[in-house]
Structures are given as C-alpha cells and as structure tokens.
C-alpha cells in the first residue's frame, strides 16, 4: 500500500483598517437560508435561458458582495456603518444537456419566507473540469452495479451476495491523454465493498480488483474491468463500535471531563452567525463546498481605548488534496480533492453532542441545495465552544532569591529590600505568582469524506492580531507559526496529480486579493488539469507589497498507514497559528480579567 | 537586542521487555525523602575524608540502582517480581576547601525516620566546570553589592537608592582564554535591577551598564565595571498584576472552564509516586537538577490478553540551554544552562492551585537539599491531572450514500441494502457515528529561572507504545513526531557557547544506554567546556543497532522578542510525540471504554 499525503490549503484574506461599528441586520455574509435556496431554485428552473431538463444543481452558494461594499456596509474605515442593505445574490452551478451552466441570481428579500429571485446572468462553462458531485450522483450510481450483469457475475465468482455489496463514486482524477476522454462526458469510477452488517467498517472489506466507469450525467456504467479476484478480508477485529469490541475494555477507563463554567458562557452568537467573545468578534458562515467560513474577524485593543481592529476579512479551507500514491490499477486514481469534488459543507457530519464537542458547546445548522435545488438542512454541523484544557496563557513567578529554609536568608532579604519585604512578606521568603488560564474559542466542523473524518477547528486566542501603525517603530504585522509538521508533496512535478495540485509544492503563498481567486484548485476541481489553480495564478507575478493580500497556507500530513490505524485511526493533527508581531504595544492578555477567586499574587512560604 | 534560542534536550531511555508484575514497596526510583536527605547530610559531615569546613551541598540526589537490578526488582523479563529491596544510595556533590567533592552514600533504611547512612565512596573532581549553584550562592551574593563602595557610587550616580536595588547571580558561561581564569576560582557575574515595589516586573528595570564578578566560594566581589549609565526605564505599563493593570479589562472576559468528572478521577497514585491510569502505569520522581523524572512507563495491551509492555525506562529534561546571542558587554555571557547551573527541581515554582493546573489536579511535593544539606520541602511542584480539552481521540461517521432529503434515495437504499436498512434504519437515511473523547494524563512542573517560566508537561495518551514482536511482519517500533517548530542553533560551531552545547546542532541523537551519560551538557555544566557532552560521547561511534538505546531530542524555540512579549510574554509551546508504529496489532483505543451515556452509534436523519 502506498502512503497518502493529505494537504489542506487555507485561504486567509487580511486587511488592516480600523473599524467603527457594525450593523448586524441581515448580514451580507450570512449564508443562504432555506427560503433563499428555494427562491433560487424557482428562479433557475423558471429561466428560459436553460430550457433543457433534467437540470441538476451542483452548487448553490452566496455570491458575496464586493469587498469595498462590505467594508462600507460594516463601517470599516468610516465613522459609522451604512444602513443600506447590500444586494443579495447567489451563485449557482448546474448541469443540463451535458453542459455546465453558471447562474447569478438576485434575491429580492433576504429574510422573508416569501423571498423571490431572478436570474441576472447566465453562462455556459466550456473549459476543463466539472463541478462537485451532487449527493444524488452518489446515491443513484450506487444502484447501478447490482443491475449490471458483469458485476453480478464478478460478485458471484467471489462467493459473495450482491445484496451485501455497496458501491461508491470515486473521482477519476486527471491523467491526460493516457486515459480515455469518453467524449468529454462527466465520468467517474465506481468501487465496491462488502456491506453486510457484520461490521461497521465497510472500508476494510473491499471487493478488490473491480473498477467500473460510470457516466454520471447519463447515470450508466460505460466501462468495466475485473482484473483479479482477491479474497475479501474477514470481519474479525474490524468493527469499532463499542458493543462489538468489548468487553474486555482497557481499564480502568480514562475519566472524561465535563467542562462547566461557573461564571457562565463567555460568548454569544447574534442573529445566528455573529460571534462575540472576549476581545474578538467574527462572522461564522456555511458553504456547501468550503464548510465553515470565518469573516470579518476583529480584535479589540483595550490598551488603545477599546478600538476594534480587523484581522481576517474571510478565511476558509479552500481544498483538501489526498493523493494515495499507490500505483496499483485500482488505487492510482485515488487523488481526491475533497472540497472541490465532494464538498466539505455537503459532507459535514452531524456533530454528536457531548462527544464531538464538549458539553458547553453551542451548535449551528447549515443549509445547502440537493441535486434538485431543494434546501437540505444539515443539522448541528458547526459547534462553537470555549476550550479550557488546563493550560496557562501566561504566568510569571517571582521569588526574591530562592525559597529558603533558614533565618539567615530571611534577614538578608530584610536588610536588602526593607520596603519590599514590609509590603509583601510571608514567613521566610517573598514570593508571588501571577497566572492566567488559557481559554480559547473554537469553531469546529467535522467533515467525513469516505473513510476520512476531518475535524476542522478555527481557534481564537485572546492574544490578538494585525495593526496598521504601532509607536516603537518596529515593523508591524503578524507571523505564521507552523504548529505541527507540514507535508511536502513527494509527487514528481510532471505527474498528473501533482500538475492539478501544483500549489502543494510550497507551503505558503501570498497573492493580491482578487474576489474570483477563491478555490485553490480552481472553480472546477473535479477532473481539473491545473490550468486554474493557485500556482498558475501566481505566474502573473503581481505586486504583493503594500496591497491587500491573501495568505494561502498548506497544512499537510503524510499518512503512512500503521497497524495502529486499523480499524479506525487515532486522530492526527496539523495546525498553524497566526500570531501578532509588534501589532499591540504590549501583551494584550495583560488586560484580560482574571477569573473570580483566581489565586493570583498569592504569597507562600517554603520551610525546611 | 539579540534573540534568544531556547533548546530543551530530553533524555528518553527505552527498552522493550514484557513485564510480569511490580512490587511497589519502597520503590527503588523513589526520590530521597526528607529523612534520607538528613541522613545523607550527617554521613557526609561525619566523614573524615573531607574535614575542611565550610562544606556546602550543591547536589543531593538518588544514585539509582543499575538497570539490570531495577528490571529484576520490577519483575521485568521474569515470571514474578523479586521481594528483595535494592541497596538505597545517594549521590552528593559538595564544595569544600575550594574543591569539588563527589560522595556515594549508602542509606541503611529507606523508609524509616531514623534512617542512617554512610559514605561508601569519595572522589575529588579536578576537571573543568562546576556543580549547580546552591540557593545560598544567590542569596548570599545578593547582599554583597550594597556593601561594595564602587557599586553604591554607581547607583548614586544614576539617581537611585541602593536600598531599592536587587542583584542576581548570572552564570558566566565559558569563553576560553579570552577571559580571565581567576585562578580556577568558582566565579559568576552579578547584575542588578531596580526593585522598589513600584512594579512586580523587576526585569524591566535593569541597572544597565554595571557588571560585577563574584567569587562564590569566598563570597566576595573580585571584579567591577561600570561601562555606561543608562536611564532606568519607567515603571509605567510594566506591571502585570491584575490589581495594577485594570480596570478597564478586555471584555467580556473569556469564561474559564472548570473540569468536573462525573465518573470520578481515572487515575490513582500509589505510595506517592506510582501512577496508574487507563492503559498506563509509570513512576513519577523528583530531582533537584532534572525536576520531574518519569520511569518505568508501561502500557497495557488489552488485545494481547492484558499484558504490560514497557515503553520508557527513564525520561527527564536533561538540559535547557538559553544563549541570548546579544554581543553587548552586559549580555554576551548570558548563555544559560538552566538545569545544570540553576537546577530545574530546585527552581520549580509552587503551582498555583486551580490556575497553573485545573481543578481536577492532584499535587505532589518534592524534597531537595539546601546548601547546608538540610532537606527543603518544595510544596506542590508537580501536578497530575486528566486533561480533557473537548478533542476527539478517534471518530468515524458512516452514512450510506449521503444524507438525503427525498424518498427516492431511501427506497434505493432499501433496494440495495435490505438487511442493513432493516437493522439500523432511521427515517430517510442510515447514519451512525462512533466517537471517543481524547482524555490524556498530564504530569506538569513549572520551573522559573529568572525571567523565564517553563511549563514542562509529560502527557500520556491512551494510544500507547513499543513492542518486541507483533504478527504482520512490519518493522515494529515507535516514531518521533515533532509537534511544533524545532530550533536549529544559529551560533557558529567554534563559538564558545556552541562548543559547550554542541549537541544542539542536531535535533535527534541516539546513543547506547550508559548509566553515567545522563546530563547532556555534562555532570559539571556550570562553566563547562563541551568536553563532556552528548556530542563528545557520540564521537565514540558506538553501535546502536539491536542494543538498549537512549533517545535524545531537542525541543527548541527561537525567541525573537516582540512587543506582545512585554511585560510578560504569552505562552509559546514546543513539543514532540512518541507514537507507536506497528507495535499494537490495531488501534489500542478501540478497546477504550466509551464514557457512560456516550452518544455512539446514534442514528439520525436529515430531512429537507
């Protein structure tokens, strides 16, 4: 088995403008509501521009207003926020008549259940690549193999029951002219597993050796190969459900904690999307491709009269690239782009309360469109919680000299430091400690794409961010701190999967802000060829000094499978931190109020 | 100001032997008790081998039994533990008559308040370097400047009151023949700060420009230079104590969590030192130089019939090297070796309950010897707690197809997977998630050396460690995962500070186990010359394949000071993980019992 490299690229757009106030009435970054998605659907289906049927919706999402309008709306850079609502628009990608259609839709009333909408632009996309699969692509394709005689025969030959076999759509990647073009049809591959309820671990029991090619628009199998009939692994030891694996359990069990907050929750969520916590405020959105979207994150500078300073304009996971790097005929094309092919938001797992997130979490829903354009409620897909792991944000301990055990030292201290000892004296020694707990705010989504579960956290620390001017004359900014290994792609530069994801050869990219450069692997990532990705855009060599920039960072893991990853692998983490660097005049945590009854400036003695 | 590089080297000794049982009666790795330290003191002072007085104790610690004896005692590799107690010995370094003396002491009764002891070996050390400072070196030296007329005059010239000035002993490092040898005397430097109770932040107000040389054995100032009278910085904005900085506080405050454990604590500490938790057991010791010492950590393999497998024989922080890399006359010699010069255990800060450690922590004390050999109780210097940060140890979500919103998909599922749907059906879709919380066990010490506070955590995960045999035929072992940046030393190879800490040019070293190779910077780190450090030992090029090995890992941070680090810097972290690699046959967490009422295998539906 080859090893898999998993790279997640994050889009982080930053500006540095002092803001005044924010109006939160129907925020322009709010994701489309169920009513808005319905109105969009009606507008597209009613449009005479695309009469062909069936028409399937592959992407429906917010077409965000232009950045200057958002800044003006929110009152950034001006003395007050405007009260005018911005135009509310959606962007739609649909397939009909074997073509990819792009629509821009204007929605008349943002918050009304009777919202109406109309198409304001339409285009046919004729370049390489396809939009994300719809959920229905998966579900409908699953039904094909059981009715396909060669597959039924392959299954029979392996001594299996076709009723116990389930199949899934696997993106085919892109391998240039080395593979059939299928006349430009939207094709994928189908691979199957034994799925007989003997184990929950369906991925441990592949029907290895069989690969089908499916035309997803015609929803028909158009290619078939049964190369070799491998024995299907046994179910023994593969199930991971508690009632199947134990007892005996490893014991005694680690005792789980429950976080309670005697002083109550420290954050609130306004209008369903705007979070205020400690010295931070930000907007949480949802997109069927990107998943969680963090916007307009600003930090308050108490030392600067309580001014708000913006740190992030918009940030989200732009792509998750997972080349398996196994040359076998059934594995080489496993070169997934999970966001652009399957959709992180559409694949978000409903969070298990008190398990995926702690007891003090608040949960948010998302809405996306199904293949027919109807809204799907994705329940509990985002949780927000204050995280307290028992760590310390900052501390300092002062003892005069060292802890002492005799009176000689004590009298020496008195001799040397009479004023100090008079004021803060305790027994033989003079000591005090000042400690602040590390409490952070986490915005979490868990995305399950096939056999991988991604826990994607945005964690806010009270330590803050970017600024335009600071007084000492240092270069102001923030620094990027990798917190975990980064994975350099090991693919050759001219390998097809690497050409599609050529940006993974560098961990950090900076580009000038451009609203259309949002998806690192291109708008049409499925079967993309690398002609519309970050590395390509960067060849234009645009100026990035003294302009509004976007930071792209690749978090990566080389997943070399170990025995311990079976049947379900333990969590592995990669992360990075953006940390202010000479933005604040001093540690912004100094003005963080210590919790009630917090034992600071305590004075303790040690004796022999 | 130059930047500081901070490297922490950890000693990790591993073996891989299946153990049978452990007798915990007076464990041979228990640190010396107060009674034992007293007995050791009496034995040294009563010995005719060193009649010279005064005699000061620089190090008193456990002289651990040889490894084969420990293994035999603990029953590793045999069918049962022995019941014979091993000889109990102490190692002492003392200064008398201007010489460094080493003693080995045998203690007659380990657990008796009337323990007696006798010297069984004595040697005079005549090589380069000196033992750790005693606490009294600091305290006594502090008293010297106020009685030293040139210093009193320097202070007066700066418009300061000598009663408001405090001084500290700064190790002088080693700079070869470029500096005076002072006839081989044990000298250090003295530097001072204004200490007038106007601010707790004494390090922000140095009496810059003045450096004194002190002979610590004679306890006299033997060198003095006042190069330039800088203005002492103002106190404004320097204090970090809550009552001095606020209000206004940054608000609303982040709400701290309190971890409660409804199912009780998951660990217990036997005989004060032996910790049992989940699938782990290990011994926690204390040493005045190393601080926390973890020994005999073993993991239980439930899948292998509940056998115990040893992972770490002994592990501790061997050195903390902090070269400031500032060429100024008052700063160039700041090339601290905090463990070898000041002692991590002796500098351990009393942990602030519910602040340095969460509410569910258990606290341990330590004992070390003061300069006169008397035991000093270091209260609450180690805490042990179960850490629950709201993270997930492993999870997997299975949905058949994707969440669906119509009956077509549901009927397709029924058609395809009748057995499965019969068993686990819920509405339109079939989904379940299995999640286990990440609960870890942390052993924490906070060490304050001057202006730096080090939080040193050993964190145990239920995910496990090394093994001798496994069945698949993979290469067994564990892997080292850096979890955070490592700091490569930027000093030139022939720079004196780098020669002392030449091992910092590589992040990972492996040596064959040798009981005497314990301190990475040498037994006598103070003014050491690099002739007895890890890099030197490694030049012997000993075999490391198929032998008992020691892993040395350097965690490092380049601390480039930013405005935000003032007046107290926010916590920065560096870490590494040792993770089993084909040791277990499968994920050992699979057999971790889920918490009561844990929502696994839940079945939920999404509808449109």
Automatic annotation (TrEMBL), chains A, B:
Residues annotated as signal peptide: 1-20
Class of enzymatic activity (EC top level): oxidoreductase
Superkingdom as given in the UniProt entry: Eukaryota
Domain Copper amine oxidase catalytic stretches: 259-470
Cofactor comment text: Contains 1 topaquinone per subunit.
Domain Copper amine oxidase N3-terminal, first and last residues per copy: 131-229
Pfam families reported in the protein's UniProt record: Cu_amine_oxid, Cu_amine_oxidN2, Cu_amine_oxidN3
Gene Ontology process terms (BP): amine metabolic process
SUPFAM superfamilies: Amine oxidase catalytic domain (SSF49998), Amine oxidase N-terminal region (SSF54416)
Record-listed E.C. numbers: 1.4.3.-
Copper amine oxidase N2-terminal domain location: 27-110
InterPro entries hit by this protein: Cu_Am_Ox_Cu-bd, Cu_Am_ox_TPQ-bd, Cu_amine_oxidase, Cu_amine_oxidase_C, Cu_amine_oxidase_C_sf, Cu_amine_oxidase_N-reg, Cu_amine_oxidase_N2, Cu_amine_oxidase_N3
Cofactor: Cu cation
Gene Ontology molecular function terms on file: copper ion binding; primary methylamine oxidase activity; quinone binding
Alphabetical UniProt keywords: Copper, Disulfide bond, Metal-binding, Oxidoreductase, Signal, TPQ
Processing and modification events after translation: Topaquinone (TPQ) is generated by copper-dependent autoxidation of a specific tyrosyl residue.
Assigned protein family: Belongs to the copper/topaquinone oxidase family.
Protein name (Swiss-Prot/TrEMBL): Amine oxidase
Species of the source: Leersia perrieri
Lineage: Eukaryota, Viridiplantae, Streptophyta, Embryophyta, Tracheophyta
